[in-house]
């Protein structure tokens, strides 16, 4: 009789334990006191973790595919692949929660208007490319939009509360201008090809002939044009817009071959010969140069003059094409400091992990579904 009672009690206990695990709430993954992230957001980040794992393997094995990686045995950076992918997914979850907490602490608001604007773009991407795959994984359109849009929007809002006008570490206009002058380059160039273009018909037939250099008379004419454009800027009191219009007339085209930008110097790789020529150029002095069978007229603006175009986004008008965003300059100026700050805040973040959700929707499940 005692044995029967014990057996019955064991069955009841086992059933209770099974219900406790099987009936656990798996709708959220990680949470803080104020924010819980959904299982859909977590699944999406495991998808990104798996994608990042594949990309990491392909750095040393370009032929690697998802099917060729054993996520339970192969290693990435001395971690089992599934653990590496999990760690990447977890980092993204915690960064999201860190930003949410900081936004709450600093009263940095993400408006419905800004989220809905971003959501519109991501919803379109989801519906056009990913709906079938993500529905299999269990990532809803809303989860996809939140996972992609909210961290960036929260980051912008927090950044502005720290470094923006009246922020806790407000950056002065003087410091913004000084940073801009020291670290940015502004340029314009136009160019023409000194070789014949490839015949598309010969390329399709597999008998592509090497491009031939243009005749001397044509090249001399092009050199004359480019020299004229340089003189227009150096001595003629003309603008780059004037040069563009002159180019269209000289080459009888509707669209001139030109490029212009105002960007951090670090964005211009010196392995690119055109960028190297720009960085080596004197400000306010246009010149011509042949690079890789193309003839260029290159002009580097006076960066101190360009600094006068720095304006806050709130002060810029829609038709003001010359405005340089103050917010963008400050982001470039403070991005490294800001990221270190976020890393420290993330280390100290107090959160809860929902094991029931994490185990149910683990990396191996994502891999299995993706492999089909």
**Separation, N- and C-terminal Cα atoms:** 52 Å
Instruction: Please state the overall shape, judged from the principal axes of the Cα atoms.
Output: globular
What proportion of the residues form beta strands (DSSP E)?
Answer: 5-15%
Q: Helix and strand succession? A: HEEHEEHHHHEHHHEHEEHEEHEHH
Binned, the helix content reads: 55-70%
Report mean pLDDT, rounded to a whole number. 91
Uncertain spans = 1-23
Largest sheet: 4 strands, antiparallel
Number of helices: 14
Q: What kind of assembly state do the chains in view correspond to? A: single chain
What's the alpha carbon Rg, rounded to whole Å? 29 Å
Strand order of the largest sheet: 6-5-8-7
| Total beta-strand segments | 11
Structural class: alpha+beta
Structure characteristics:
372 residues, alpha+beta, four-stranded antiparallel sheet, three-stranded antiparallel sheet, 11 strands, disordered N terminus
């Amino acid at each position: 009789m005692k044995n029967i009672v014990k057996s019955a009690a064991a069955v009841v206990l086992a059933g209770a334990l099974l219900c406790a695990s099987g009936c656990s709430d798996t709708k959220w993954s990680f949470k803080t006191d104020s924010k819980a992230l959904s299982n859909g957001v977590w699944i999406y980040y495991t998808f990104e973790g798996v994608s990042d794992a594949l990309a990491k393997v392909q750095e040393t094995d370009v032929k690697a595919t998802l099917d060729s990686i054993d996520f339970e045995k192969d290693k990435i950076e001395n971690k089992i692949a599934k653990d590496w992918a999990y760690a990447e997914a977890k980092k993204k979850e915690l960064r999201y929660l860190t930003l949410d907490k900081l936004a709450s602490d600093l009263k940095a608001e993400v408006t419905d208007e800004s989220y809905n604007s971003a959501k519109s773009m991501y919803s379109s991407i989801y519906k056009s490319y990913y709906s079938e795959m993500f529905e299999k994984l269990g990532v809803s359109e809303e989860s996809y939009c939140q996972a992609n849009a909210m961290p960036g929007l929260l980051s912008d809002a927090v950044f502005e509360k720290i470094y923006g006008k009246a922020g806790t570490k407000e950056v002065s206009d003087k410091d913004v201008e000084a940073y801009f002058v020291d670290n940015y380059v502004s340029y314009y160039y136009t160019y023409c090809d000194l070789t014949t273009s490839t015949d598309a018909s010969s390329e399709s037939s597999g008998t592509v002939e090497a491009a031939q250099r243009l005749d001397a008379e044509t090249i001399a004419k092009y050199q004359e044009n480019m020299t004229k454009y340089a003189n227009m800027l150096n001595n003629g009191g003309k603008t780059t817009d004037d040069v563009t219009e002159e180019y269209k007339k000289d080459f009888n085209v509707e669209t001139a071959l030109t490029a212009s930008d105002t960007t951090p110097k670090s964005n211009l790789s010196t392995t690119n010969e055109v960028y190297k020529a720009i960085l080596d150029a004197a400000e306010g002095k246009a010149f011509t140069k042949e690079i890789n069978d193309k003839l260029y007229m290159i002009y580097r603006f006076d960066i101190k003059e360009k600094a006068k175009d720095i304006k806050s986004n709130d002060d810029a008008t829609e038709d003001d094409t010359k405005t340089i965003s103050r917010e963008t300059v400050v982001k470039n100026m403070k991005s490294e400091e800001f990221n270190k700050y976020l890393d420290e805040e993330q280390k100290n973040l107090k959160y809860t992990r929902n094991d029931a959700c994490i185990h149910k929707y683990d990396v191996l499940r994502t891999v299995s579904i993706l492999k089909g």
